[in-house]
Amino acid sequence: MNQEKSIIQARATTPRAAAIAGILFSLLLIASLVLVRISVPANPQDAGAWLSGGWKNVDLALNLLPFAGIAFLWFIGVVRDRLGQNEDRFFATVFLGSGLLFLGMLFTSAGIAGGIISLYGATPGMLIDSGIYNFGRTVTYEIMNVYTMKMAGVFMITTCTLSLRTGIFPR
Q1: Residues 87, 149, 23, 81, Cα dihedral to 10°
Q2: Cα–Cα distance, 22 to 83 (Å, whole number)
Q3: In whole angstroms, what separates CA 130 from the centre of its chain?
Q4: Residue 139 domain-assigned?
Q5: Which of 138, 63, 152 is nearest to 104 (CA)?
Q6: CA distances (Å), 27 to each of 22, 23, 125, 156, in order?
Q7: How far is CA 165 from the centre of its chain?
Q8: Angle CA(32)–CA(74)–CA(10) in degrees, nearest 5?
Q9: What's 44's DSSP letter?
Q10: Residue 69 and residue 138: Cα distance in Å, rounded?
Q11: pTM of model > 0.85
Q12: Is 47 within the bounds of a domain?
């Protein structure tokens, strides 16, 4: 019984859990981004004609994002656990802060996009004419493409720096 328990614990080690969480996050985020990319025109000032046919793909993408966020939080937790006593408090703080800001901005832009889609479902003609669509689309675009991506870059730099300094990831 104890031998079986130790085998199960050995399989669920921290590095393996981080790898699984990181891969799950990346797959879910990539699926969401691809669904949005194939459905929504790149120009944030478009007229909103895509809403009549492409909103279901975007809705699916928005429903995948919370699961990607959970996997990302799991990844952050596992990496911090792996750092343990070796963590550099400065880089660990920037790592945690940038990860949480990335996730917060990702969820904010998803919430705004979800609100636009919900408004379109309730009043399709009024949404486009009112200017709310243009405002929401521009805000979502700015948050996602400027601020969220910058926090993702900070997160990647600090993750690499922490892993090099502490040697927590195998080469």
Answers
A1: 20
A2: 16
A3: 30
A4: yes
A5: 152
A6: 9, 6, 35, 17
A7: 26
A8: 125
A9: T
A10: 23
A11: no
A12: yes
What are the tens digits of pLDDT across the range 98-126? 999 999 999 999 999 899 888 888 887 78
Residue 140 tokens, joined: 């979502």
Q: Which domain holds residue 146?
A: 11-166
- Cβ-proximal residues to 57 (8 Å cutoff; 6+ apart), any chain: 35, 36, 38, 39
Separation between Cα atoms, residue 53 and residue 48, nearest integer Å: 10
Question: Residue 39: what residue type?
Answer: S
Q: How many structural domains is the chain composed of?
A: 1
d(CA 59, CA 20): 25
The answer as to whether 3 is a domain residue is: no
d(CA 98, CA 103): 8
The angle formed by the CA atoms of residues 102, 113 and 98, to the nearest 5 degrees, is 5
Radius of gyration of the chain (CA): 20
- Residue 83 inside a domain? The answer is yes
Q: For 23-32, what is each residue's pLDDT tens digit?
A: 999 999 999 9
